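Q: Can I see a sequence and its folded structure?
A: Here is a first one.
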Amino acid sequence: MNCQIYFPKKGLYAVTPENILRGSKTLQKIESVILGGAKVIQLRLKNEKIEGKALEKIIRIQRLCKKFSVTFIVNDDIKLARKIDADGVHLGEHDISYDNARRALGNNKIIGISCYNNSKKAVDAAEKGANYIALGSFYSSVTKKTATKCDLEILQQTSKKVKVPIVAIGGISAKNGHILIKNGASFLACVDAIFNKGDEYNLARKINLLFEQEK
């Protein structure tokens, strides 16, 4: 059963760098990305203790997303998603199963599934009730240098088989994102292309404008 919470139809899906909580300008960076047009913010943390000031900062990020009506997704961490009442979670192949995640979160939360380069897995996830699926890596990724590669044909095939949004990920920028949209991507997921370069607003805006050009 699909959950009833709203999930946008298309746009920039911004994934935070793993060290996003350690900087002094965390909220400014995320707000700039949101103002640049991001429809979704995914909090991706690795080897981070979620307590004290770190938890306080996460809650402030969540409030910022709520202020601008931006969907707030937690990567991997079901416990954190429940604790702060996030809009949903994103799951990879080594995370908790979709069925267990749905039981833990209920039907009013978003669950996204990474399907890498596997169209069948994407179809199965959508049929089970995933609210969106992710495919990639389409290009060389700075964030995940050994990521599984996915080609455009897989994206094309999958877009014809599923009704849920498809998030394309992996080395995506304003220079190469348009071809993914043309071939069926509903969202472009970006990390390095928008963060860590000191111009989050304009970088996010350039990617978001790719969707306007496809109208």
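Q: Show me another, different protein.
A: A second, unrelated one:
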Amino acid sequence: MEINQYIEHTLFDAQTSKADVEQLCQDAINNKWAAVCVPPFYVRTASNFLQEHPTIKVVTAIGYPMGYHALPVKVEEIKRAIDEGVDEVEVIANISAIKDSNWSHVRNDIDSVTTAAHLKSKKVRIVLEVHLLTNQELQKLCEICTDVQVNAVKTSTDYTDTTVSTEQLQKIKTYAKDIKVVVAGNIRQRAFIEDLLDAGAYRVGLMAASSVNS
């Protein structure tokens, strides 16, 4: 299986520089990756570097790492990222609101950021942080994402270095119905990437420092 076309590399190291982002983009060109995910500060850098390679999408994370940001802040981050050339935004669900069972806030949060992206014809996905959720919370969150019509959900930011199993992926696909699923989290083995793709993953996210073992 040719996996590169499904790979998305993320670079969110605390010491990330412009040179690091440009190298990531060059690696994406060389390896024909599907996308790169960079901090909001470097969206313009990545967009400019990849302007002649439209098949490689520029993604940024909003509300990183735990979705605690106030909703107006998330919306403004999205607007700025779009102005600077982002193709897709991933927005971290507000874990605190979920744990408080404040589902009206969670729905309003997801609805507002989705609207902000869709008004500019950009794709949006919601990061679920699956390992932090009960099964009931995961199902409720997927139902909201389905109702709001987000473009995709993502299992994790990779911030906490946890792995999602193919069984968990299939559960998310059941809950989220026709929404695409991006899988991320401590993924190193090529065989596991192939298993995830066979199980229905839309993309597989890797940290930029990761190496895929055969």
